[in-house]
Specification:
By secondary structure, the protein is an all-alpha fold. The protein has twelve helices and no strands. It has one domain.
Length: 212
Amino acid sequence: MSHIIEILSSSIIHLIETTKYVGIFILMSLESALIPIPSEITMPFSGFLVSQGKLLFVSVVLVGAIANLVGSLIAYYIGYFLEETVIVGWIKKYGKILLLTVEDYEKSRHWFKKYGNEIVFFSRLLPGVRTFISLPAGLAEMNIWKFSFYTFIGSLIWSVLLTYIGFYLGERWNQLEPIYRKFEILIAITLLAGVLWYINHKLKIIKLPKLH
């Protein structure tokens, strides 16, 4: 597995070096379209190129966020137009090729059902779930404008974070990915706590009409 990741990382780096923004757009679109290409490599390396004066920070961030939105819309409409049994069957048949499991899909579906539309935003900051949340959103026929808004804002924050860290670390940009993977459980718990607080706070401020 480590050898595969090494080959994937080298391919990502080569594509960005040779095609710049086009490569970033392709990689980030594929990541959100159910192809598990780690943005933890794509965006920090792009940030490193920003530190070298080869790319512009704002352009990198916008391309990354827009690409995530495009890929997410593809996944959304897959969920929108296909039956769930078809999707699960497709994952069972081809999931190994894309490193996609039924468990990943079930996790994202559970989160969407439990926390509603807002999870589309929070999931963009969460590894694993962020790649697959668009499928259950499409299956649930979530309002496309809300989906696009939450997806873009969440992806924008994610792109800013990873690009800045790559910019800050410079040539040490590749230190981010293993560190991020090491603490992803802690990050997941923190974000989940944020979701729960938001939902609780939202419920508290809603006043029920009085019965006369």
